[in-house]
Amino acid sequence: MIGLDLHFGIDIFKLVSSRLTLRAYVDRCLARPALQRAKAIEAAGA
User: Fold this and answer.
1) pLDDT at 21
2) Deepest in the core among 9, 31, 38, 42, taking most CB within 10 A?
3) What is the DSSP string of 1-46?
């Protein structure tokens, strides 16, 4: 949950300044298999 909140804060809304440690954490969260499956389901329209 925190990873996606940071993703929105850093990448989408630009409310949080991107630091190397935060960027690395967000990248790890976005690369998780569960998130990839959820994105695929969402893209399929289910």
Assistant:
1) 95
2) 9
3) -HHHHHHIIIIIS--S---HHHHHHHHHHHT-HHHHHHHHHHHHT-
Domain that holds residue 32: 2-44
8 A C-beta contact, residue 38 and residue 22:
no
Cα–Cα nearest to 1, from 40, 35, 36, 44: 35
Please list, in sequence order, all residues whose beta carbon lies within 8 angstroms of the beta carbon of residue 17, skipping any fewer than 6 positions away.
10
Q: What is the pLDDT of residues 5-46, one digit of tens each?
A: 999 999 999 999 989 999 999 999 999 999 999 999 999 986
Type of residue numbered 20: L
